[in-house]
Amino acid sequence: MTAASPARHSRGPAPADGHPLPWLVPAVAVLALFYAIPVLDVFRLAFSDASLLAPATRVTTDAVRGTLTDPALLSVLGTTAVFTGITVAALQLMGLAIALVIIRGEDRGLPGMAAFRTLVLAAWVVPGIANGLVWGMLFDEAPYGTLNSLLGSVGIGPVAWLSDPQMAMVSAMIANLWQGTAFSMIVFYAGRKGIDPVLYEVAELDAATPWQTFRYITLPLLRRLIAVNTILIAVQTLNTFDSILALTGGGPGRATEVLALFTFNTVFYNLDLAGGSVLALLLFGISMVLALVVLRGMGRERAAA
Amino acid sequence: MSGLRMSRLRMTGDRWGDVATYLLLGVLGVFFALPFAWLLSLAVRTPAEVYLGAARFIPQAPTLDNFALILSDPAFLTYLWNGLKLSAAGATLAVLLAIPAAYAASRLDFKGKNAILVGILAVQMISPLVILVPLYRWMVALDLLNRDLSVIAVYGALGMPLAVWLLKVTFDAIPKDLEEAAAIDGASRLTTLLRITLPLARPGIASAFILAMVTNWSQFLIPFILLERDGDWPISVAIFNFAGSTSASTTQVLAAACIVAVLPAVAVFVALQRMIVSALVVGAVKG
Predict the structure, then answer these.
(1) Which of A155, A159, B60, B181 is deepest in the core (most CB within 10 A)?
(2) What is the DSSP string of A225-264?
(3) What are A107-142's pLDDT values in tens digits?
(4) Taking every annotated instance into account, which residue ranges of this chain make up the domain ABC transmembrane type-1 (chain A) (predicted)?
(5) Looking at the structure, do residues A173 and A209 belong to the same domain, yes or no?
(6) This model's pTM is above 0.90
(7) Inter-chain touch A1–B100, beta carbons under 8 Å
């Protein structure tokens, strides 16, 4: 219904005419005022000597050079890559598995599927700080900590959940997985629901095994969604810092200090605005590269459709 | 293979599949439920029972003292109220901004529509962390620092892209014939939107609002930067401070505080999740 009849045109607004500007101005203006302007300012600050205690006095590349040559940055980037890479892969696998299992259960009329979905969603809306605090109690290394007292009762442990650098990383990933899985679950649930049921009926007539059905129908048809979801989750994970802040504070040492947390610490603990802005730009750059990959992918999808 | 045997084979196969389904969901269910269950268990324990760990999962002497302690603190009630106020106002702003934009995207044809929509969505890729420093300075310049309005405005900008996308899909699903009929009767576009489209879009609007509100409730960074006075903090910031303070040195009190901070969002979301999930599913399929 894009073309209205001329008779309607003369009477009142047809579906597709009218100036878009008045409709778009409020949204775009607020976005520009409270988001775009600050983004532009990040660039200016990165090339200044501003700190939380003193405003910028001159244009300089000292902050850029100082931040990029900081030996800590390399270890932070390594930590970020490990944390983001493994978390994203785990989030995808878990979200996909749960979505497919729930849909299978729904198709078979098994009870409890909605309840399970609700449980996963409940974890999603827990604030990041609370997430870190709660998992901090579960990982508590005292003999009465949740996991250690559970493991202790079957004769295992104690595990140094938060004091061992490598275990602390695993713990941070587990806490993030608990909270983040719901997003992938919804995306894949929607994607799987969007697949034509006829394909599955044909597969059943051909006596395909569940694995074959997954391998040759579900997976190929979800491939594009998996790609888009990977990037969305990667950007989200890259910017996660509140749960880690509350869980480990980045420690022990710098073992769990990801780029997002490093940026936060640079501003609030080192009071280094210029350095923090350089790091924010780095974070922005990595996110933008990932976003462009998505947009290109979506553009290609549009063109193909 | 005879037809009968085939179907029997498939039946046992399906049975085993059901067993596997429940096994997997059971294991994952424990993973997802454990933090909630443990939090609850800790929050109703006496200090003595905290030290008994998992052995006292169901406390012998459950107590509500920890909740009483938290809720009798007037500051805590202020934090909860601040959280509610900021989240609701921010979500309202996001939806109000999104409605006209989504309507234009759904009903009007214009040059650069896709570019504008993609641009709005791209904003969502930028974390508040990226703009935290300039945001603070900008709010100082606008004389909005330490005012609720600063946080509400940023929440509006932050929550709007998702709301635009959800509402566009909602509007797309409403037949244009209804609007055209009203247009023939001489109604302006604005009247049509207010009288016909919006009432029909109620479920989509509600979902967009709830999602924005829950996201705002969880926000830590923005109020942490923009509100410097303790009394202005929402619960998401206050809980972080509380965890580091001496009054939270006891685990059971912190657990009760966490429940108080987490429960409102979880309760709203659980109550309305059917509506929200269906809005998201439609959005994901159409978008």
Answers:
(1) A159
(2) HHHHHHHHHHHHHHT--HHHHHHTTT-STTTT--HHHHHH
(3) 888 888 888 988 998 898 888 898 999 998 888 877
(4) 77-294
(5) yes
(6) no
(7) no
